[in-house]
């Protein structure tokens, strides 16, 4: 297998057609067609199904492409790492951060990071661990920073706690339950969640059970902070969010905290990375900036 075959394969998979892949790479279409056919002969499988409007990976092709994409990502990181060790401020750092980390830590990290690694491209996404886990396993991101489930596969990941956290309950301004003072007062409400686990009941259930209460009605699961804030601000849904939301100026006018008497513990905020390979110097510096920014919360 040759490097140009890997390049051509990934371009074809990303662009969805051989013509678009050839145009993207700046080569003739017959060249990329021949490259992929040679790779198919070498593997003994068909990688793509040809269709009137382009190509689609076969099931076996998709499995192979996912492996190749992960390998290419690691190769890119190896090149970045060597360059950074030689003092070249280049490469890419990919990180998935929870909303709480975006609000509380990223503003203190972004400027010093770019002062040190001005030439490094930052690829930042928002999400929770269920979103980040497959990308960590496939080496498509360097680190995840945010709340984590209680049980992680210890052999696959290295987890470092930054600080313990707590939660607050938020509602739209003027919500009819705004004066509630206990979880029991909120039992008739409907809830929205962005869960740190795949199933929201695994997170909500134990917390309410500790106070002798049944599982609340979780009828919406959001997959972004924007969805969460929009739904809560324009409905009577309640949300239980990290305490950092209390200081988020973008939602301060539309959301309000409901002051219940119970202590609402939250999953700890952690840095999670793959266990098999070290971070690049840029990624390690990014994590060090996060550690420093976490001190006020520790």
UniProtKB/TrEMBL annotation:
Record-linked InterPro entries: LysR_HTH_N, LysR_subst-bd, WH-like_DNA-bd_sf, WH_DNA-bd_sf
An example molecular function term from Gene Ontology annotations: transcription cis-regulatory region binding
Start and end residues of each HTH lysR-type domain: 1-58
Pfam families: HTH_1 (PF00126), LysR_substrate (PF03466)
Family: Belongs to the LysR transcriptional regulatory family.
UniProt-listed PANTHER family: HTH-TYPE TRANSCRIPTIONAL REGULATOR, HTH-TYPE TRANSCRIPTIONAL REGULATOR ABGR
Name the record gives this protein: LysR family transcriptional regulator
Organism: Kineobactrum salinum
């Amino acid at each position: 297998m040759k490097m140009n075959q890997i390049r051509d394969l990934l371009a074809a998979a990303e662009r969805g057609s051989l013509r678009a892949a050839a145009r993207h790479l700046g080569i003739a279409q017959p060249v990329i067609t021949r490259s992929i056919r040679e790779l198919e002969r070498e593997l003994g499988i068909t990688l793509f199904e040809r269709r009137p409007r382009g190509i689609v990976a076969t099931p076996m092709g998709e499995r192979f492409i996912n492996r190749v994409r992960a390998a290419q990502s690691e190769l890119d990181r190896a090149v970045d790492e060597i360059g950074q060790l030689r003092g070249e401020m280049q490469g890419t750092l990919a990180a998935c951060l929870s909303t709480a980390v975006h609000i509380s830590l990223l503003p203190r990290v972004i400027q010093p990071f770019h002062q040190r690694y001005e030439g490094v491209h930052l690829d930042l996404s928002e999400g929770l661990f269920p979103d980040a886990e497959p990308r960590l396993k496939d080496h498509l991101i360097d680190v995840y920073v945010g709340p984590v489930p209680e049980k992680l596969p210890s052999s696959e990941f290295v987890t470092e706690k930054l600080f313990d956290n707590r939660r607050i309950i938020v509602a739209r301004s003027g919500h009819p339950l705004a004066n509630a003072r206990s979880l029991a007062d909120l039992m008739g409400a409907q809830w929205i969640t962005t869960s740190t686990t795949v199933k929201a009941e695994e997170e909500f259930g134990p917390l309410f059970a500790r106070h002798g209460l049944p599982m609340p009605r979780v009828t919406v699961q959001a997959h972004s902070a924007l969805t969460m804030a929009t739904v809560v601000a324009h409905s009577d849904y309640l949300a239980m969010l990290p305490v950092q939301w209390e200081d988020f100026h973008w939602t301060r006018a539309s959301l309000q905290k409901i002051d219940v008497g119970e202590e609402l513990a939250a999953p700890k905020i952690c840095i999670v990375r793959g266990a098999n390979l070290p971070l690049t110097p840029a990624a390690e510096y990014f994590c060090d900036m996060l550690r420093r920014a976490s001190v006020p919360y520790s």
